[in-house]
Design a protein that fits this description.
Number of strands: 16
Strand order of the largest sheet: 1-2-4-3-5-16-6-15
CATH superfamily of the largest domain: Zn peptidases
Structural class: alpha/beta
Number of domains: 2
Helix content: 25-40%
Radius of gyration: 24 Å
CATH architecture of the largest domain: 3-Layer(aba) Sandwich
Length: about 400
């Protein structure tokens, strides 16, 4: 039996506590950077453990440090394990007994499970701290859903505090991946996410006399279609971007041509080169089509999370841990990035590491079935799979600190 199998056995013992904590957090979802109920639940879950807890001024996030006590290893490496904690501003329609009690909020992306798994990983590694040749830091992070909580915790100095991590690892649940499997890939794992607004300015007038006005609405429609052509004809298909116009707003009533039309959407890319080229193309297409129709186009692009790039060497290391812990059949190589975005990207800009996905497909489903995905109001997960996640966190940390060379 592999030495890592004991972590899986002990994680199964800790599963009831993880489920209870996950359900407590799920019932009281919180948004953004300040999560008092969730942070309290984490601190309650850590009661009795000999750990150090650091907090910063910008968020309610925590960095929990567990120092190893392996004889003869006073100074060793340090690894960071991350779990995000915030929910989404959306209704829940799962019918679960522990469904959200707060209208308009739901843990639809599994951050409740991430938090619960990480708390129990602290417990599991605390049991084995005499074997740890170094330090494990556990990053309980708020504000992943668009608020940049990871960046703020970095700016607060929480990641650079001594001992500074040498590597970082995170798990994210994925309902459409077979239960208990781990999904990974080297290089770009998740996309960047930028947010854009185009305001087309024309000249208002009477709907029956468009020749006396400059109608911005058909110009906005033309820009929207042209942007898709720009993506397909000016961007390398092997370095893809996804550009989506998600909302168009114009007008007040049925017989008035408005003065302006507004479009908003997102732009996602898997490299900085494609990201910059698409941003430039968006500005060019909007400005020139507007000008061709005697309008003006004001383009505002708000840069969001960068590309999440997995270090290839650390992915190889993590794959070997998965293979030993869960069996080679439970590691899935993903051929292409996921076009969603993650602010763990800020962490991976500072140190090697990787983000992987934990399969939590609900019982009774198969791979080809439709499974409610993350961000669905009906998203549910297989809680038994959290044992694999707890064990994976512990195994990554233990093996990383055991190795003297680079991962």
């Amino acid at each position: 039996m592999s030495e890592l199998h004991r972590f899986l056995e002990e994680a199964r013992e800790l599963l009831p506590a993880a489920v209870a904590l996950r359900r407590r957090i799920h019932a009281e979802p919180e948004l953004g950077l300040e999560l008092p109920l969730t942070t309290t639940a984490v601190l309650d879950g850590l009661q009795g453990l000999d750990v150090e807890i650091a907090r910063g001024p910008s968020t309610s996030g925590l960095v929990v440090s567990l120092a190893g006590r392996k004889p003869g290893t006073q100074t060793g490496r340090t690894i960071l394990l991350r779990g995000d904690m915030d929910a989404l501003p959306m209704p829940e329609e799962t019918g679960l007994d522990f469904a959200s009690t707060i209208p308009g909020r739901m843990h639809a992306c599994g951050h409740d499970a991430h938090t619960a798994m990480l708390v129990q990983a602290v417990h599991l590694l605390h049991r084995h701290r005499d074997e740890l040749a170094g330090t494990v830091k556990f990053m309980f992070q708020p504000g992943e859903e668009g608020h940049g909580g990871a960046r703020l915790m970095i700016e607060d100095g929480l990641l650079d505090a001594d001992p500074k991590p040498d590597a970082a690892f995170a798990l994210h649940i994925w309902p459409s991946v077979p239960a208990g499997a781990i999904l990974g890939k080297p290089g770009p794992m998740m996309a960047s996410a930028d947010y854009w607004t185009i305001t087309v300015k024309g000249r208002g007038g009477h709907a029956s006399m468009p020749q006396d006005a400059v109608d911005p609405i058909p110009v906005a429609f033309e820009i929207g279609l042209a942007l898709q052509t720009m993506v397909s004809r000016r961007i390398d298909v092997f370095d893809p971007v996804v550009l989506t116009c998600a909302k168009v707003t114009a007008g007040t009533t049925n017989n008035v041509i408005p003065e302006k039309a507004e479009m908003i959407g997102t732009l996602r890319a898997t490299s900085e080169k494609a990201r910059e080229r698409a941003q430039e193309g968006l500005r060019r297409v909007a400005a020139n089509i507007a000008a061709a129709h005697l309008c003006e186009a004001e383009v505002i692009i708000k840069r969001g999370y960068p590309v999440t790039v997995n270090d290839p060497g650390f992915v190889d290391f993590a794959r070997s841990v998965v293979t030993e812990l869960l069996g080679p059949e439970n590691y899935i190589d993903r051929p292409a990035p996921i076009m969603g975005a993650e602010d763990f990207s800020y962490v991976l800009q500072r140190m090697p590491g990787c983000l992987m996905f934990l399969g939590v497909m609900p019982e009774g489903h198969r791979e080809h079935d439709h499974v409610a995905p993350c961000h669905s109001n009906r998203m549910m997960l297989n809680e038994d799979c959290m044992a694999a996640g707890i064990a994976m966190h512990a195994s990554i940390a233990h093996r990383f600190l055991t190795q003297n060379g680079t991962s």
